[in-house]
Amino acid sequence: MGENDMENRKLMKLYDFRSFKLPEKLLEITVDTERLDKAVAEAAGRFLTIEMTDGGIKEGDFVVVETAPADEGDNGADYRDRAEIVPGHIQVNVGKGFYDFKWEQSLVGKKTGEQVMLPKRGKNQPGTIMQVKRRVYPELTDDIIKQLSIEGINTIPEYRAYLKQEMISEEKMRKSGGVNAWVLKELTRSSVFGDLNEEITAFKEEFKEEVRERAERFQMSYEEMKKQYIEMGATEEVLKECFTYEIYQKTAYADYLNGRIQE
User: Fold this and answer.
1) What's any GO biological process attached to this entry (predicted)?
2) CB distance 41 to 81 below 8 Å
3) What is the helix (H) or strand (E) element at residue 254, kind and residue range?
């Protein structure tokens, strides 16, 4: 490759990436046993049923409460402005906080037929627990694994091995991205570039235009949006480093991929 080509590409010398010693942490492939156990157990959840129960209410249960008539002149709105509490029924998924978390927790242990007080402005409104339903998970068996219809997977151990391999593949893909980013960063630091001021200036202008467009989209001033970028870490020093990486990738990445090392 000629000298003029090198000057045009702004890359004077590409560091021999084969001499890099990758950090061992980047090469480690591990599977979180707790995550794997949870993933295996979730197979049974695909065949859960919702059943009535007369036992004490537990977190996660679906509870139907019949509300008493509201006082005359009172619209019955609860203090969180959720929905009107009027004569009828409300359903609560205990512990999710969609109605009122503290009140939902007070239902735990109560049974069908018991009286409860629903929170609302000024005073509480009486209600009666009419129904309690619970998710029932079947025991995980080989028969359930077969129903997943995964080719060649018929037992719990086989399913566990299958999921483990899936997680290993995901981890390898994630790690490869990390390795690539690390190599590019080290190459940028170790390679020798020509004068990049012109390119950096051009990138700055592109960045400013991006800030302007974003400010207009969110109906903010340029300075306000610029301040947000700075608060997120987009300082002059960081931006210059980022722009240098961008220029590097456009001028030297192909050489890196093809293994052509400039001596």
Assistant:
1) protein folding
2) no
3) helix 236-258
What is the enclosing helix (H) or strand (E) of 132?
A: strand 125-136
Other beta carbons within 10 Å of 178: 14
212-223 CB burial, b ≥16 within 10 A, e <16: eeebeeeeeeee
Q: Which pTM value belongs to this model?
A: 0.55
Phi, psi dihedral angles at 153 (to 5 degrees)? -115, 110
Residue ranges making up the domain that contains 165: 3-33+148-258
Contact between 63 and 91 under an 8 Å Cβ cutoff? The reply is yes
Q: What is the tens place of the pLDDT at every residue in 41-100?
A: 999 999 999 999 988 999 999 999 998 655 544 444 443 444 444 457 888 999 998 888
Cα separation of 72 and 196, whole Å? 78
**Which is it for strands 88-93 and 115-118: parallel, antiparallel or unpaired?**
unpaired
- Give the chain's domain count: 2
Same domain, 25 and 85: no
- CA gap 116, 132 in Å, rounded: 14
Residue 37 to residue 30: CA distance in whole angstroms: 14
Q: Report if residue 42 sits inside a domain.
A: no
Alpha carbons 156 and 60: distance in angstroms, whole number: 27
CA angle centred on 175, ends 172 and 176, rounded to 5°: 85
Q: Are residues 89 and 29 in the same domain?
A: no
